Amino acid sequence: MTGIKVVTIGGGSSYTPELVEGFINRYDELPIRELWLVDIPEGEEKLETVGALAKRMTVKAGVPMDIKLSLDRREALAGADFVTTQVRVGLLDARAKDERIPLKYGVIGQETNGPGGLFKGLRTIPVILDICKDMEELCPDAWLINFSNPAGMVTEAVLRYSNINKTVGLCNVPIGMRMSVAEMLEVAPERVHIDFAGLNHMVFGLNVYLDGQSVTNQVLDKLTSGESMTMKNIVDLGWEPDFIKALQILPCPYHRYYYQTATMLEQEQQDLSEKGTRAEVVQQLEKDLFSLYSDPDLSNKPPQLEERGGAYYSDAACSLIHSIYNDKRDIQPVNTRNNGAIAGIPDDSAVEVNCVITKEGPKPIHVGELPIAVRGLVQQIKSFERTAAEAAVTGDYHQALLAMTINPLVPSDTVAKQILDEMLEAHRRYLPQFFKIVV
Ligand code: G6P
């Protein structure tokens, strides 16, 4: 059979119209025969709504891409060429707990970087590893492309605890940074190139180029003189100009949590009393999006979707699939096995780095040593991710406590234990590996 079969697990997500739009726009070079949107029974209603919109979008665009909806993951996976995963185990209610509970202890929760990220990883990794097992059996040649957060930790787990080698982790942060730089310089994003290196949500722009000429200093100057570089989900409190001058490389929006911890915490506490956590804001946004999606006259991606932090993730996804399928050998920043690209990070660990994208997958571009000022933080987060991934797989309480305590946002072992215990209880339903019955 000709054409590509793509399976999107978590297909009922409000982000799916982005992906569908990306595939429609690239249809000539990326002929997708079937796009399977798969979800769990609790997500059936959303799946139906998003699926109907996806069908209207393909009909309007006149592309013969068959949209299939399924609650049966195994049926969908059979014979797939690409599997994308965008799951949120425990849905937004669980995210609200991830963000809310740590705040009680004066700690930023954050759904990917702090204690929230740890718990999202503990819930998500076993589900992704189950998907890997199904893929081994039902579509052993397929690529697994994961966007489920925390994407770096999930990629780490897939690389180290599954038999799937053809895997890539993706994030929209590098795309967002490139777009922000382009906006600052008032040029088209295609003219901007950034040497990305680091980890997911811990990535730096080591050099920035415009048409091949270095503009790093110019961009850093703009960053400190009021020009914004952030995502919809992260408040921009500006940067201390002398810090950025000293740093000499471009931080990503998530670095605010590490370099501006006290002010970010204050902001989150204020937001909590005024509008709730980000999860609660997103719950409202989702309601609005789904009521738009239900309109039978809507047949394109509504602009309101750009209010989500993950806007444009489909550009990353579709470009990646396009380049793998067509052996394009262009450069894209993705999460992949380090293989020596970044010194001081284990070879078998996941890093987020510019890669040449080939039919055999991403080939990381050698970076060498990161600047000394950031090397330690990157290694610390890698230790956190590795420890957390191990805890997710084994259900070992002490590994989870280690991960919580070494996270730079957590101030002490005692506070780590208090947060861990409360969150384990709060998420008990989604963490069976920690509550095994010993007979
Ligand atoms: C950013 C991150 C994503 C994350 C999203 C959250 O874009 O890169 O990993 O999922 O923000 O956005 P939300 O609208 O859900 O707060």
UniProtKB/TrEMBL annotation:
InterPro entries the record matches: GlycHydrolase_4_CS, Glyco_hydro_4, Glyco_hydro_4_C, Lactate_DH/Glyco_Ohase_4_C, NAD(P)-bd_dom_sf
Alphabetically ordered keywords of this record: Carbohydrate metabolism, Cobalt, Glycosidase, Hydrolase, Iron, Manganese, Metal-binding, NAD, Nickel
GO biological process: carbohydrate metabolic process
Site entry: Increases basicity of active site Tyr: E111
Molecular function GO labels: 6-phospho-beta-glucosidase activity; metal ion binding; oxidoreductase activity, acting on the CH-OH group of donors, NAD or NADP as acceptor
Binding annotation for Mn(2+): C171, H201
CDD domains cross-referenced by the UniProt entry: GH4_P_beta_glucosidase
Cofactor annotation: NAD(+)
Source organism superkingdom: Bacteria
Binding site for substrate: R95, N149
E.C. no: 3.2.1.86
Domain Glycosyl hydrolase family 4 C-terminal: 196-410
Cofactor binding note from Swiss-Prot or TrEMBL: Binds 1 NAD(+) per subunit.
Record-stated family: Belongs to the glycosyl hydrolase 4 family.
Protein name: 6-phospho-beta-glucosidase
Top-level taxonomy: Bacteria, Bacillati, Bacillota, Bacilli, Bacillales
